[in-house]
Amino acid sequence: MSTLELRVYEIFKNKLGEKEAEVVIEYFESKTEEKYQQKKDVFLTKEDKMDILSKIETTNTRIEMAKTDMIKWFFAFSITIVLMIAGLYFKK
After folding, report:
1. Distances (CA, A) of 63 to 4, 56, 66, 67, 73
2. Average pLDDT, integer, range 3-17
3. What is the pLDDT of residues 15-61, one digit of tens each?
4. How far, in Å, CA of 32 to CA of 62, rounded?
5. Rounded CA Rg of the chain
6. pTM of the full predicted structure?
7. What's the CA gap between 52 and 64, in Å, rounded?
8. Measured in whole angstroms, how far is the alpha carbon of residue 23 from the centre of its chain?
9. How far, in Å, CA of 22 to CA of 3, rounded?
């Protein structure tokens, strides 16, 4: 316990009693820890947000590359199908 905690404990002990003072101090400590964890989680989300944004950019790049490849293959198969149909037509 810090000196401030000891002083507060002594004040509560004189007014409420030893057990009640311990309960009040434990309550304040738990609330302080809870607030600290909430703030810590907020800071982590800011770092995670930057990480997520970089992953989104990478994913968008991959999608664009896949789209380009799909268009290339579409034209390749279209030309092949047109040639096959023309071959069947001129075979007769």
Report:
1. 58, 10, 5, 6, 15
2. 80
3. 888 888 888 888 888 998 988 888 877 776 778 888 999 999 999 99
4. 45
5. 35
6. 0.44
7. 18
8. 37
9. 15
